[in-house]
From TrEMBL:
UniProt-recorded name of the protein: Sugar phosphate isomerase/epimerase
Alphabetical list of Pfam families matching this protein: AP_endonuc_2 (PF01261)
High-level lineage: Bacteria, Pseudomonadati, Pseudomonadota, Alphaproteobacteria, Hyphomicrobiales
Keyword match Zinc: no
Domain of life (superkingdom): Bacteria
Source species of the chain: Rhizobium hainanense
Keywords, comma-separated and alphabetical: Isomerase
Keyword Transit peptide among record annotations: no
Residues passing through the membrane, by range: none
Length: 285
């Protein structure tokens, strides 16, 4: 019998957050701020431009990319079109536009923030993105806060669906501290909103058990590796991958490298990719 070959060509993505030092600059778009954000050298001057990222992904054998909203130097149609073309020429799918601000759980500003988030749907369409991730909320998970978020997400999801974009949330911030809150919102939205599970957002006791309760519902995954002075915590990373597989997760793993352990961010990204690939190879052996 021939050896089973595991095709992982569509199972990996890279977030621009994993390249934030190479990109250097950020553009802090915020709700209620009508002024175009001024470029901030948040992580230094950088060595590449955002428009170079799709080709860099392809050069490293990764054909999906997620873009953080604060990495977009312009929202002009001409720039968004050029970025989309760059991805298409590199044969890289623009998997997700990550909208990096806003809070739907704050009763004083939720309506404003929901309208601001809705404006990003047009950006996602212009980029050719498949998904758009929004922040559900930052308030404590009271019944009233969760209900408020569910109301706004329902409206945002309707707008996104009409535009051909899949709206997703993430197990992130105080509103979603555990599987009960995540599953409540997903149940309330009746499949109109998807889940982007993140390995690194619940770094606490019970992390693995709680991730196992949501990863079966996840459509996307931020596979963030835990790094220390000794490098990647491979035991933690492999456990997260295996519990996701066991839960039935079948989507892409977005490689999140957020460390200075490797001087070159691509070295960390590829280390994470190889770690996950080895899990799949062991599974198929």
């Amino acid at each position: 019998m021939g050896r089973l070959v595991v095709d992982l060509s569509d199972r990996f993505a890279v977030s621009t957050w994993s390249l934030h030092r190479k990109l250097g600059s950020t553009y802090p778009y915020k709700p209620g701020d009508l002024a175009y954000p001024v470029r901030q050298p948040t992580y230094g001057e950088g060595t590449i431009e955002l428009i170079n990222v799709p080709q860099q992904c392809a050069d490293h054998g990764i054909f999906r990319v997620e873009i953080c909203s604060f990495h977009l130097p312009s929202l002009l149609p001409s720039y968004l079109g050029d970025l989309r073309k760059a991805a298409e020429e590199a044969s890289v799918k623009l998997q997700t536009l990550l909208v990096e601000d806003g809070d739907l759980s704050n009763s004083e500003t939720a309506q404003r923030d929901a309208e601001w988030m809705a404006g990003w749907i047009d950006v996602a369409v212009a980029l050719g993105a498949e998904n758009m991730r929004v922040i559900a909320g930052k308030a404590q998970p009271t019944d009233s806060a969760l209900t408020l978020v569910e109301t706004h997400l329902h409206r945002l999801a309707e707008l996104a669906i009409a535009a051909g974009i899949r709206l997703v949330i993430e197990n992130w911030f105080d509103l979603l501290p555990g599987p009960a809150e995540v599953n409540r919102i997903l149940d309330a939205l009746r499949s109109k909103v998807g889940l982007n599970g993140d390995f690194g957002n619940w770094e606490r006791a019970g992390k693995y058990e709680d991730l196992a309760k949501i990863m079966g519902r996840a459509e996307l995954c931020h596979a963030k590796g835990r790094y220390s002075a000794t490098g990647l915590d491979a035991e933690d990373y492999v456990r997260c991958i295996k519990l996701s597989n066991a839960a039935g997760y079948q989507g892409p793993f977005t490689l999140i490298y957020d460390s200075t352990y490797h001087g070159d961010e691509w070295s960390g990204i590829l280390e994470e990719r190889d770690c996950i690939a080895n899990v799949f190879k062991e599974k198929s052996a």
